[in-house]
Design brief:
The chain has 265 residues and is an all-alpha fold. Helix 6 packs antiparallel against helix 9 and helix 6 packs parallel to helix 10. It has ten helices and no strands. The two termini are 41 Å apart. The protein has one domain.
């Protein structure tokens, strides 16, 4: 009788290391596949900074505006570029990848192997999150070196706001994937959400330049709150706790709903 007990224990303790090794292998494989997608890399890494560079070439955008406390429009568009990187990743790129895997039955087949589908989901979130961080860093560097935009004066608050922004964008992406049965449906839903989110982020006009009533409404949405938080940190102030709370709440709500509605098949 004792023999089966002793043989079962090592198998149970050996499972976690095998699971971690399998997850690491999935991450490496997905990283190679991710780097082979020039379209995704362009929209995440290049597009936000390219838009910033185009706007920076407009002479009036580089002139100080007394109505904005002597700041320039291009100064306000650097945080917008960061938000655009997060929006593009979470709404346009990542959902299409995950729904494609589910639609082709990859997640279902993985469930019969030692690699759990959650490992693939974690790998995609990690890779897209890392690419977004790289895109944000590139936008900050180009803004500073090409157009003389000052680096954030409240760096810790800026990093925190950017991190919460990324979390909310990825949570929104997971929700779109959870609610979209096919890649085409994810693309349609993503496009329907993409443009309103760009508006709230200030792509067509900085949130700080919107009428006061519109600002108050936009700040209740994740990217409107993120725009204000990043702008405050860039000016040397700690981001408003109300803005950080909005970002945190949206992340938790979107993530919870996505987890409950997500289907591997």
């Amino acid at each position: 009788m004792p023999a089966p007990t002793h043989t079962a224990a090592p198998a149970h303790t050996a499972a976690p290391p095998k699971s971690r090794a399998a997850a690491h292998a999935v991450l490496k494989t997905e990283a190679r596949l991710f780097l082979r997608e020039p379209g995704s890399l362009f929209w995440i890494l290049v597009f936000p900074t390219l838009l910033l560079a185009i706007l920076g070439l407009i002479p009036s955008f580089r002139e100080a505006d007394p109505s904005m406390g002597g700041r320039r429009i291009i100064d306000l568009y650097v945080p917008v570029a960061l938000l655009l990187a997060a929006i593009t990743t979470g709404i346009q790129v990542m959902p299409a990848v995950l729904t494609g895997y589910r639609e082709r039955g990859i997640l279902r087949r993985m469930s019969t192997t030692p690699v759990r589908p959650a490992a693939l989901l974690g790998a995609q979130i990690t890779l897209h999150g890392a690419a977004t961080v790289a895109s944000m860093t590139l936008a900050l560097a180009v803004g500073r070196l090409a157009f003389g935009v000052a680096l954030p004066e409240q760096l810790a608050g800026y990093v925190l706001a950017a991190f919460l922004t990324l979390c909310s964008a990825l949570a929104l992406g997971c929700l779109l994937c959870a609610l979209s049965p096919t890649t085409k449906a994810a693309s349609v839903a993503g496009s329907a959400v993409f443009f309103p989110m760009m508006f709230t982020a200030g792509v067509w006009g900085p949130v700080q330049a919107m009428p006061e009533l519109l600002q108050q409404i936009v700040q209740l949405l994740p990217f409107g709150a993120a725009s204000q938080a990043l702008n405050q940190a860039a000016s040397g102030h700690w981001p408003g706790w109300s803005h950080l709370a909005v970002l945190t709440l949206w992340t938790l709500v979107l993530g919870r709903v996505a987890r409950r509605r997500f289907r591997w098949e």
